[in-house]
Amino acid sequence: MTSKASSPRLLDLVRERIRVKHYSIRTEQAYVDWIKRYIYFHDKRHPKNLGCGDIEAFLTALAVRGRVSASTQNQARAALLFLYREVLGVELPFLANVIQAKASRRLPVVLTRIETQRIPVCMDGSHALITGLLYGSGLRLMEALRLRVKDCDFERGEVLVRDGKGAKDRITMLPGRLNTPLQDHLSKVFELHRADLANGHGRVYLPYALAQKYPNAPTEWSWQYVFPARNLSTDPRSGELRRHHVSEQAVQRAFKQAVRDAGIHKPATPHTLRHSFATNLLESGYDIRTVQELLGHSNVKTTMIYTHVLNKGGRGVKSPLDAMQ
């Protein structure tokens, strides 16, 4: 491939189109990475000189040689379809000859109620609060990290999740047990925000060009992150120096260590708390449609996985061994 074929120009066009469609920066990074891998797989040939068969070869190699999961292969496919349809203006027929990666049908890891109580005790500060929200509100990790001050309604006991998975908003509960520690935490964050303003900073990232529509919003208290990062950082898109939210990796590392310290021998991650939230609600007798709404699932079939975790499937099945007198 010539230097022109691998030039940043193509990737710049990809990034520009992604931002026009308001995709997240995580999606942007993932799509750009897959497009790079696709180009290198075909010896740096320009994608406009490649076709459906070349895409099929790349995706098949991911499944056969790379042994990637079905979700990973689907992400790569989505990235390439985006490249051709949105950037190169090429409509591709259905990719019928792709060998699909086998979708796993594993049940989610779930913690007991006692285990969920032991983990936050082994964590400090904001990490413990984030863990409490993941389990107490059923949030995804990034949903918790992206919470703004205005999204927490202490009077109503609600958390408003903005722009969750699938660009959907939803309301879930704010655990009463977290009221006092969360309000104490916000008092410290408020002082941090005041200090940032005094030092000429204090502007927070706003999506969908809201900063242009409401010029004062980026510095307003209500728009600040509930869990701000310890240090200022440079925004990768705008280049502006400001305070972002806590790092996802930092919470994951702290959680992993807390699981070890709590003596829990399960492959638990922060997302395990969301699974535990759903399972424990169903165990308590809550309707599956209610749990579906709290989780933000589009289809109740997604929520039904937790009935399999309970091993009840809608019926309280009792082991024959336990039924013996």
- Which regions are unreliable across 5 or more consecutive residues at pLDDT < 50? 1-6
Kindly name the structural category.
Answer: mainly alpha
Please state roughly what percent of the residues sit in beta strands, choosing from under 5%, 5-15%, 15-25%, 25-35%, 35-45% or over 45%.
Answer: under 5%
CATH architecture of the largest domain, by name, is: Orthogonal Bundle
Domain Tyr recombinase: 106-319
Protein name: Integron integrase
InterPro entries: CB (IPR044068), DNA_brk_join_enz (IPR011010), Integrase-like_cat_sf (IPR013762), Integrase_catalytic (IPR002104), Integrase_integron-type (IPR011946), Integrase_recombinase_N (IPR010998), Integrase_SAM-like_N (IPR004107), Tyrosine_recombinase_XerCD (IPR050090)
Domain Core-binding (CB): 5-88
List keywords for this structure.
325 residues; mainly alpha; DNA polymerase, domain 1; hpI Integrase, Chain A; 2 domains; 3-stranded antiparallel β-sheet; two-stranded antiparallel ribbon; 50% helix
Task: Explain what the structure shows.
This protein has 325 residues and is mainly alpha-helical. The chain folds into 2 domains: 8-87, Tyrosine recombinase, N-terminal domain (DNA polymerase, domain 1, Orthogonal Bundle); 113-308, Intergrase catalytic core (hpI Integrase, Chain A). 50% of the residues lie in helices and 4% in strands. It contains 15 helices and 5 strands. Strands 1-2-3 form a 3-stranded antiparallel β-sheet. Strand 4 and strand 5 (241-242) form a beta hairpin. Residues 1-6 have low confidence and may be disordered. Residues 106-319 form the Tyr recombinase domain. GO terms for molecular function: DNA binding.
